[in-house]
Amino acid sequence: MLYLLPAYLSENSPVDYFAPTIKDIIMNVDHYFVENEKTARKVIKFFAPEKKQPELKLFLLDKYSETADLKEAQKLMKEGVDFGLLSEAGLPCIGDPGNIMVGWSHKNNIKVVPVNGPSSFVLALIASGFNGQQFSFNGYLAIEKYKKKKEIQHLENLVEKTGFTQIFMETPYRNNPLFDDLTRFLGPNTKLCIAANINDPETEFIRTKTINDWKKEKPELHKVPAVFLIGK
Questions:
Q1: Residue 79 in 3-state DSSP?
Q2: Do 82 and 153 have their domain in common?
Q3: Final residue before a domain boundary, out of 98, 114, 130
Q4: Are residues 103 and 201 in the same domain?
Q5: How confident is the model over 42-46, as a mean pLDDT?
Q6: What is the pTM (predicted TM-score) of this model?
Q7: Which of 54, 83, 114 is the last residue of a domain?
């Protein structure tokens, strides 16, 4: 089996936010696909501190990976070895390359088991007050200023024309420049939700305001995991 395991959104998330079955799976699975070994070991320790770390066999699966790079793991899976798949945060295969092994598993008759856990953009959506029946997740916006401006204004137009909520993210160290661009390129009455440090009991920040109001209160988002939403 290939277990799609959630990771915490914040290291301060209480472990009882998560299903007990996650610990049971981790205690019985030694092989994992991971984006980052250090992060994965911390997540595994969070859920199952009793798990012996030397027993873990971690296979790097990042945006540069191809199925051809994962032949050793694929051979083990065909032989019946169970694997877990861990994202950097939240659910795997959303905003990360985990779908590579999920697609391969379906083609090779290996059962894929999704396990309940937090998704940052879904939690941001339900806390935003925006349309939760019709929405689009756009991942990361362009880095180049001109292209980013066009994308931001395009998303605003989509909200106006369709009512669909538009959701996107940024690398945490570029959050503040993105906020500046949003307040510069969006109309004054356009509504923007910022959801940062989701699931952190102490520092979670979720606010929905017009651009006019955001200009009066600039949040500090540098190196803070955040989700941005434009909606009605």
A1: coil
A2: no
A3: 114
A4: no
A5: 96
A6: 0.89
A7: 114
Domain range holding 110? 2-114
196 pLDDT band, cuts 50/70/90, is: very high
Write the pLDDT tens digit of every residue in 134-177: 999 999 999 999 999 999 999 999 999 999 999 999 999 999 99
Give the model's confidence band at 3: pLDDT under 50 very low, under 70 low, under 90 confident, else very high: very high
Element (H, E) at 231: strand 226-231
Nearest to 171 by CA among 217, 128, 213, 222: 222
Residue 8 and residue 110 in one domain: yes
One domain, residues 89 and 157: no
Report the distance separating Cα 86 and Cα 141, nearest Å.
Answer: 24
Closest CA to 125 of 213, 53, 57, 206: 206
Number of domains in the chain: 2
For residue 199, count other CB atoms closer than 10 A to its CB.
19
Q: What is the mean pLDDT of the chain?
A: 94
Tokens 């088991």 belong to 113
Q: Which two tokens stand for residue 30?
A: 């030694």
Same domain, 99 and 127: no
Does the structure show a pLDDT above 80 at 4? yes
Tell me, yes or no, whether 25 and 104 share the same domain.
yes
* 144 contacts 177 by C-beta, under 8 angstroms: no
